Amino acid sequence: MRNKIKKLKGNIEFMRYFNNTSWLFFDKLFKMGVGFFVIVYLTRYLGPELFGLLSYSQSFVNLFMAFTGLGLGTILVRELMVYPEKINILMGTVFYLTLFSSLIAITMIFGLSGFIIDKDESTIIILIISFTIIFQNLNMVIDHYFQYKVLSKYMVYWSTISLFISSVIKLLLIFLETELVYFAYALVFDSIIISIGFVYMYRSQNLSILNWKFELDTAKKLLKVSYPLIMVGVFSVIYTRIDQIMIKHMMGNEAVGNYAAAIRVSEFFYFIPGIIVTSIFPKLVELNKNNRVEYFSLLEKIYRLVVWASIPVAIFMHVFSDLIIGVLYGEQYILASSVLGILSWGVVFASIGAVSVKILYIEHYEKKYLYKSIFGVLVNVTLNYFLIPSYGINGAAIATLVTMFSVIYIYDLFDTELRVFYYLKIKCFIPSRNLFSVLTLK
Q1: CA-CA distance, 328 to 330, in Å (whole number)?
Q2: Under 8 Å CB-to-CB from 164, ≥6 apart: which residues?
Q3: Which of 37, 58, 55 is nearest to 46 (CA)?
Q4: Sequence-ordered strand ranges (E) for 139-279
Q5: How far is CA 74 from the centre of its chain?
Q6: What is the separation, in whole angstroms, between the first and last Cα of the chain?
Q7: Cα–Cα distances in Å, from 329 out to 10, 46, 147, 255, 302?
Q8: Residue 100: which domain range?
């Protein structure tokens, strides 16, 4: 064992990715510890009614935010690896494209607010939260630069500081017993603080956002590749957030509050596969280009690792869902326990999906990603329409789970080009002695 550890420590490439993954893991773990405490405290303070209204407002804005990213995040990483000398042009072009789309989205939200949003407090909450779109897209561009450089520790530095500031502000608002609208302002302030830190960290690399340049030819090239991903982003958010919007209009804010409370718990554990796949993504791009055999070998290892890391989490949440909800939120959220019991298994599907999505980017299957997303929306909306009236928020949870399974397994089974990857998603449930061999990056 000692010899293996020494061998790994001597592997420069392994240590590079291991350190990057460790920083990402620390970041998420810290956010779980501090951020989760604040969210639980906030959820208790607001109660199901107001928390449901806040969650609905965020989901509504997220529908538009999905469009503004233009699907350029992962493509930016891929292009930077191929054309590192064009960093200012690539970064600048992506930023100005997303800035323009952000302004369009905010304008649309303001224009639609008087027609399709209920005439209650959610209108002003949605309008306030919509301004987070601009800053979050700036953060996205800089964050993907550090993903490309495998230097996530710089993002962790400021994420930790900004989380502390954000947590103090939210706790102060709760202590002062402020109205819901001030928590919406706090969300905008969070995005601004993170942007300031990200720009500073980018500057620490002797780079400046002032050097970013927009190039029309580059924009056309990027949009030609990403245009399917624009719709992918929209449809992906629709089938992951439309349930809360439908629950709001079919059952009311309190039902949304209980459902959102369960989602907050289950989605906290999505960070494990996300960290692994995000950190190793540059390596996958490299192997796909130079050695397809090793590429498939590493994919199989990643699939197996994320699945077997998520299964114990899913079992724990399913068995102790009543206890988890009771301890975290109290009796006022008792309806959320059954939802959590159902959604707990979504952690496994989310782990598989995290790898599958990266494969679509690497293989340039952007159009397939679009078709999968449209398929997911059709399944999810249809199931929600029939299951929510009959089974309430539990029906929405079942719809979410069935949709995840359908997108990951059923669709791929009928696509000849994706079928080769489909078998990896079957084999990953077979345990292996070399479960953690992915860490060697061989």
Answers
A1: 6
A2: 34
A3: 55
A4: none
A5: 13
A6: 18
A7: 47, 11, 35, 15, 34
A8: 2-440
CA distance 15 to 13: 5
Q: Which two tokens stand for residue 129?
A: 């939260």
CA-to-CA dists, residue 184 to 178, 261, 431, angstroms: 11, 18, 45
**Residue 40: other Cβ atoms inside 10 A:** 17
- Which amino acid type is present at position 370? L
User: What distance in Å separates the CA atoms of residue 402 and residue 424, rounded to the nearest whole number?
Assistant: 20
In the block, tokens 């078998």 appear at 423
- Per the listing, tokens 């100005």 go with 96
Give the chain's domain count: 1
Structure tokens at 371: 């078709």
Q: Is 70 helix (H, G, I), strand (E, B) or coil?
A: coil
- CA distances (Å), 415 to each of 87, 229, 337, 355, 363, in order? 36, 19, 37, 17, 14
CA–CA distance, 138 with 88 (Å, rounded to integer): 14
Distance CA(244)–CA(328), nearest Å, equals 21
CA distance 266 to 397: 11
Q: Residues in the chain with pLDDT < 50?
A: 1, 4-5, 7-9, 14, 439-442
257: closest CA among 186, 182, 336? 336
Query: Dihedral of CA 348/47/385/235: which sign?
Result: negative
Question: 437 to each of 12, 14, 107, how far by Cα in Å?
Answer: 16, 11, 49
Please provide residue 394's backbone torsions phi and psi, each rounded to the nearest 5 degrees: -65, -35
Give the pLDDT score at 172.
Answer: 92
**Residue keyed to tokens 């009236």:** 389
Rounded distance between C-alpha atoms, residue 298 and residue 276, angstroms: 12
Task: Tell me 392's DSSP state.
Answer: T
Q: Which ranges of 130-179 does DSSP label H, i.e. alpha helix?
A: 132-148, 153-175
Contacts 24+ apart (CB under 8 A), 157-165: 157/197, 157/201, 158/194, 158/197, 158/198, 158/200, 158/201, 159/27, 159/31, 159/194, 159/197, 160/27, 160/30, 161/197, 162/190, 162/193, 162/194, 162/197, 163/30, 163/31, 163/34, 163/35, 164/34, 165/193
pTM strictly above 0.85: no
Whole-angstrom distance, CA of residue 142 vs CA of residue 195? 9
Give per-residue pLDDT as tens, 41-60: 888 888 888 888 888 888 88
Amino acid 379: pLDDT: 93
